[in-house]
Amino acid sequence: MNKGTKEQRNKGTIDYKRGYRTKPNLFKKLFWLLPFSLKHFKTINFIKHIIPKVNSVVDVGSSEGKFLYLLKLRSIKNLKGIEPNIYYSEFCEKYFKIPVIKKYIEEVPIIKADLVTAIAILEHLENPENFIRRIDAKYLFLVFPIENPIVEGHIQSLTFREVMDMFYKYHWKPIKIELYWKEQIKSLDLFILLEKKNR
To answer: Can you name the CATH fold of 6-23+41-196?
Structure first.
């Protein structure tokens, strides 16, 4: 696991947390709230076969709630976000009527639901293993870049072998894996759905 230099990690942490203290331009992001958003259609499509088995979802790093909103349209009633940005959190609660825990991930001791999702989160964490260890769920869905150089805002670069070892250590069994290459930004993203063994 390449955590980069101390300077890179510090800058990544500062950039990441600075974003949660500033007011985002939500108007520019409204397109991504649409149900036919290509980005989240692909995400929803990846997990659609388990949606009928799920009654509760916690989305870690839920932003303004667009992913939770699409799950709500699929009749999942018990939804919750974890998002430290107060503006995003209030937007989600006001317009989508979905509750949000307004804390950093590190401040939430246990993350419990039938399905826990974290899209583009692991690369921002100083200790991804500590995050995985605190999840109490039947299913875990993650999207994150692997085998990539550290870029602005990221704290570390994850490898496929390292994350798989971490999942197995905490009894997570992968049930679906896909890789997506983003040509525009030269990034390889891992989409992975896991099921907890012996839960």
So the answer is: Rossmann fold (3.40.50)
